[in-house]
Amino acid sequence: MGARGQMSPRSAPSRVLRSFCSGQPRHSVAPAVAPKPPISRALPFEAIPRSSPNAWVNLYQFWRTNSFPNFHHIMQKNFQNLGPIYRETLGTYDSVHLLLPRDAAVLFQSEGIFPRRMGINSWIAHRTLRNHKCGVFLLNGEDWRSDRLILNKEVISPVGTRKFLPFLNTVAEDFAESIHRLIRKNARRSLTVDLHRDLFRFTLEADKCIQNIYQEFCLGQPRKYSGIMAELLLQEEMPLDSIKANMTELTAGSVDTTAMPLLFTLFELARNPQVQTALREEVKAAAVSSRELSKVMNDMPLLKGAIKETLRLYPVGITVQRYPMRDVVLQNYCVPAGTLCQVGLYAMGRSPEVFRDPERYDPSRWTGKEDSSFKALAFGFGSRQCIGRRLAEAEMTLFLMHILRNFKIDTVSKADLKTVYGFILMPEKPPLLTFRPID
């Protein structure tokens, strides 16, 4: 309550929401303006459509049919059959699944100052068993916030990312040169290859830079920017075991999660030559206008759009999750605080309700004036978005810039890739890509 017994502005909406969710009548208040049409009451949580009436039978069916690798396709089908919200129960697992950006917006607005997402219990148990600290990927509450605020300055801030660009650019240049060397050994002057393992090594290389600088730091070599870990050590704001935990999680969480989008992007460029040509022209123009890496990257909006377009069609994680800190109304259903809610990124990205011509690979859809609010959620949203987001975007942008500048890309088969979900989304069988040098 506010001063002199008046209701504070903040308490009014929550009281209205509680009355919706509980079904209890509200006290009538004389309207100051002309009355609006009555608002329909929110339906109870139990009324949300369910994918299966029995949680344990549903779990058995998933196990019997080996459905977990196809969970993204099952979610897509459930949204088509049940609508933009449904409830999935598998054994003790109970989750509300959401399709539309406007519901994602409501969900993120209710996340509070300590946002929570699904934990990886096996990883947490492993760290606890060995008496190792957890990093921001696994932590929650005050411990998460404390580490996150320190890491933000070096990992996700624009200033911190700019300092790391030379590392990423050097590795991208080396990768392009390694392809050139292989092509020079081939009489056909081309290279056809499954690039999955090479991309894995590429994304790992920047992380090796992070791990190796500790030795340089201990040897007292001349002070220069040596990477994220060195900066954290110099700041002395975080205990060494917390630095180790967070650097371990950064490395583990940034290899395949970057390699897979690069592989999907190369495949889409290979089967969409007009898009590839447009991107190459943009890369050439940006390189002429400036030599400073951050400015070059800002001059390539279509390339940034290509990365967003890849993540729309092939999100690394097929959902983004939150536990609302208060009761919320989603699609006119009351969802209690603390309920696991998941936005279906794979299904949203391919939904005609959200995107025009959703199956078409079109980076330009991200460069116009079309409303894209809460449609690009592959890195999450808000204070708990992926902490490596800017580094991953920079790494992918620089890699693609050097590849497009040096090679034409083709693919043996232009048929749609079959995908499977195994903690991240990946191709069932990696595509064969052909690289030809640009003379």
TrEMBL record:
Belongs to the cytochrome P450 family. The lineage of its organism: Eukaryota, Metazoa, Chordata, Craniata, Vertebrata. Heme binds at residue 386. Its cofactor is heme. It comes from Podarcis lilfordi (Lilford's wall lizard). This is steroid 11beta-monooxygenase. Its main location: mitochondrion. It is found in: Mitochondrion membrane. Keywords: Heme, Iron, Membrane, Metal-binding, Mitochondrion, Monooxygenase, Oxidoreductase, Steroidogenesis, Transit peptide. One of its GO terms (biological process) is cortisol metabolic process. One of its GO terms (molecular function) is corticosterone 18-monooxygenase activity. One of its GO terms (cellular component) is mitochondrial inner membrane. It comes from the Eukaryota. InterPro entries: CYP11_CYP27_families (IPR050479), Cyt_P450 (IPR001128), Cyt_P450_CS (IPR017972), Cyt_P450_E_grp-I (IPR002401), Cyt_P450_sf (IPR036396). Its EC number is 1.14.15.4.
